[in-house]
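Continuing the batch. This is chain 6 of the set; chains 1 through 5 are on the previous pages. Same settings as before, nothing changed between runs. Recording input and output for traceability.
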Amino acid sequence: MEEVSRNGGNKYKITYAKKDLATFNDDLLEALASGQGPDLILSSHEMLFQNRNKILPLPFANLTERQFRDYFIDAGLVFKSTEGWLALPIAVDPLVLYYNKDIYTSVNLITPPTNWEEFVANQPRLTIFDNLRSITQSAVSFGTSNNVTNFKDILSLLTMQVGTVPLSLDAEDNYIIGFSATDKSNLANTVMALDFYTQFANSSRSTYTWNRSLPKDTETFLAGSLANYFGLASELPYIAERNPHLNFDVAPVPRLNKGSNLTVGHLYGLAVMKNSTKASAAFSAALDLSLTKHQQAELSSLLAVAPVRRSSLTASPTEPSEQVFYQEALVCRVWPDPASDKTKNVFRDLIDDTTSGRLSSSGSVDKAVKAFKLIIDNSK
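Output for chain 6:
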């Protein structure tokens, strides 16, 4: 890729090397140790925060907060640090609702629910049991962790819609635990979100529709036995390819009637490495790729996700699914995650400790807060 720099018309060349996500951190450490590290990395916000001690922030003098807010969706503000911008947003992958149109029409439902109250009310109509009360068709894959692909994103969605962000950064870039049991409001919000999620796997509840013994939710949806699947926008090509005969569509995730209008997702950004010997050129390239409309559109298309430029999202895509993705991109929110695999296990334990009865909901949240503290301490 060769482009003209914004500063003086100088040319630069970008050589891109794709890396396996599973070995990304090890590959990066090895490259840095050998003196062959990259000048730029393009990755998810989770991976960028895991490596933030290796990143050289873009000074606010190069891109003011006012300019940043005018250019990018609000989710990009997660990259703000005391020293500047940790990364420049490139694309966003929002969580959306995939729904089976045949299942919906079979019970005279025309459109998916827009709020959680309606979602819960529809659930019994979309669930089918056999004579032994085994589930043969599920309304939604909520309540477990072992067979729910995006359980961490879903639980993040529920907590953030009621006003509690799992982790955030203070004015000095220190992590703040939103689940903190010392804050009664946040504790109550987290417990409410957790209880809402786990009720769907409780066989004694009228909302029972899912359990640990069922196949993975992606496979259940592809088989036509799951009415609602909460997945990322980037999963659309996979679903369409795996079962071209599946009659499905996409919609925004439900909202609370009195909650925040948001979804969650994964934000992709470009960051300059501290060890770069061409930091100035790397910053110039990052600015071009993030601020130039056609370049960002090309990158977001390659990633099969939505753009993050506000001006790009005001366009009306021809594909109906992209219209939903663009709409959700504008209200997508993310949180700084210092160790995504470890925090995923925290969410897993939150769910499993509650559904197994090992701990009460509030006890599970208290355990999660302690686990978050340990992760934060180990990330310093």
